């Protein structure tokens, strides 16, 4: 089945055309800075994936998607020449609230519930919904599926998902913890089970998705029982530009002292904090590692804080589970940075997570799922390459195939 995966963000669009039978990507697209005059869109096709850059200045996310469809039909390198050659569309949706506990084919009732979820992720869900509507209009007979970042965490017990706030806010607004990166945590857990050669249902795993955004999940017997992101993807770990968990009183204090508006405060916590805010260098871990190596003390502090918060989260989830068989590292930093893994696990050996320095080395190993702990480490450490778009494509194939 040929699935167009659409991953719409607040100011970005990621898309791939995936042939699910052979699990191969036929087209990759990344549009960034969407909605600004500097917006651009890179599109590339198999087998060489040479990028062509398109100017998409001031277009909305769904207009970028429309432009991508034009390219898909017109470009001589494209594997398709008409939209009818796309069998299904898989949409990544950040927030599914309490409405969606698994992926769904988007029919009329599902589309209405998606609108109800928009206020839970006001930056991410509305552009994704706009893309769904645009595609429904353009390709009304092509089935669309919604795959939710939150769905994997629907198994969290109330003690993990409730906040210690007055009950009325849950009753009125469904303010609770939903988590995120669910597709990635689910996949990382399954891949780790494969590496360990044991069924997922027998295992206790701590999965660490460490990319620009970051979250850690306790996966007990294949189910998410707790995760570090909360009502929104702002809670939990320190991230590229997000603060993660801080004393909530800081928010009201700063709003009073600096006369910040709600939107300004939102931007401070989501876009100006985290690794960028502390280091003053960059949100990109590679730049910050480089700056720290050159003696930049604030960059070093940012890395120290980043590592320390991950260690504390891993320790917390160790306590939350009845057993821990492995810690799984995935996403940009988790997969690629041997240095960060060294620093994280240097503080966790006393809990029985003992890194093998040679196996941890990335030379020639990028993209290889593997165990990087020593043979008799009581808790294994695994590295798994995440592929969110492929997961969404396969999930879409699964549901659409059941439609007959
Ligand atoms: P993601 O959001 O999963 O694409 O991850 C992006 C993050 O991964 C950025 O902070 C990158 O700097 C970081 N990253 C990617 N490769 C490396 C690497 N080799 N070493 C350190 N950080 C990396």
TrEMBL record:
GO terms for molecular function: acetate kinase activity. The keyword Nucleotide-binding applies. Transmembrane segments: none annotated. SUPFAM superfamilies: Actin-like ATPase domain. It is found in: Cytoplasm. Substrate binds at residue 92. Its EC number is 2.7.2.1. Mg(2+) binds at residues 7, 388. The active site is at residue 149. The record marks 181, 242 as: Transition state stabilizer. Pathway: Metabolic intermediate biosynthesis; acetyl-CoA biosynthesis; acetyl-CoA from acetate: step 1/2. Keywords: ATP-binding, Cytoplasm, Kinase, Magnesium, Metal-binding, Nucleotide-binding, Transferase. ATP binds at residues 14, 209-213, 284-286, 332-336. Pfam families: Acetate_kinase (PF00871). It catalyses: acetate + ATP = acetyl phosphate + ADP. Its cofactor is Mg(2+); Mn(2+). Mg(2+). Can also accept Mn(2+). Catalyzes the formation of acetyl phosphate from acetate and ATP. Can also catalyze the reverse reaction. Belongs to the acetokinase family. Homodimer. This is Acetate kinase. It comes from Adlercreutzia shanghongiae.
């Amino acid at each position: 089945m040929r699935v167009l995966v659409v991953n719409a963000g607040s100011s970005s669009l990621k898309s791939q055309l995936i042939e699910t039978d052979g699990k191969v990507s036929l087209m990759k697209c990344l549009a960034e800075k969407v909605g600004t005059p500097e917006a651009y869109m890179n599109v590339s096709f198999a087998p060489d994936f040479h990028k062509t850059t398109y100017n998409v200045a001031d277009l909305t996310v769904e207009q970028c998607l429309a432009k991508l469809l034009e390219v898909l039909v017109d470009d001589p390198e494209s594997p398709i020449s008409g939209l009818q050659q796309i069998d299904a569309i898989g949409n990544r949706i950040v927030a599914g609230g309490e409405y969606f506990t698994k992926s769904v084919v988007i029919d009329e009732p599902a589309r209405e519930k998606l609108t109800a979820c928009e206020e839970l992720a006001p930056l991410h869900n509305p552009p994704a919904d706009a893309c769904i509507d645009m595609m429904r209009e353009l390709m009304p007979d092509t089935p669309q599926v919604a795959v939710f970042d939150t769905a994997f965490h629907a198994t969290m017990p109330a003690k993990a998902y409730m906040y210690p706030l007055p009950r009325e806010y849950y009753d009125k607004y469904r303010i609770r913890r939903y988590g995120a990166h669910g597709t990635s945590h689910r996949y990382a857990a399954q891949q780790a089970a494969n590496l360990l050669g044991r069924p997922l249902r027998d295992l206790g795993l701590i999965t660490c998705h460490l990319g620009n955004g970051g979250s850690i999940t306790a996966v007990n017997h294949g189910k998410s029982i707790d995760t570090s992101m909360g009502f929104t993807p702002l809670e939990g770990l320190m991230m590229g530009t997000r603060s993660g968990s801080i004393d909530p009183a800081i928010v009201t204090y700063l709003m009073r002292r600096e006369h910040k508006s709600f939107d300004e405060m939102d931007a401070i916590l989501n876009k100006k904090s985290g690794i960028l805010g502390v280091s003053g260098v960059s949100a990109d871990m590679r730049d910050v590692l480089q700056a720290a190596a050159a003696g930049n003390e604030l960059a070093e502090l940012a890395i120290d804080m980043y590592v320390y918060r991950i260690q504390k989260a891993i320790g917390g989830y160790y306590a939350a589970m009845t057993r821990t068989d492995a810690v799984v590292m995935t996403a940009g930093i988790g997969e690629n940075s041997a240095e960060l893994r060294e620093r994280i696990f240097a503080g966790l050996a006393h809990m029985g997570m003992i890194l093998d320095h040679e196996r941890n080395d990335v030379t020639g190993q990028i993209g290889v799922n593997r165990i990087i702990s020593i043979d008799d480490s009581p808790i294994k450490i695994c590295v798994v390459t995440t592929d969110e778009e492929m997961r969404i494509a396969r999930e879409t194939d699964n549901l659409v195939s059941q439609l007959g």
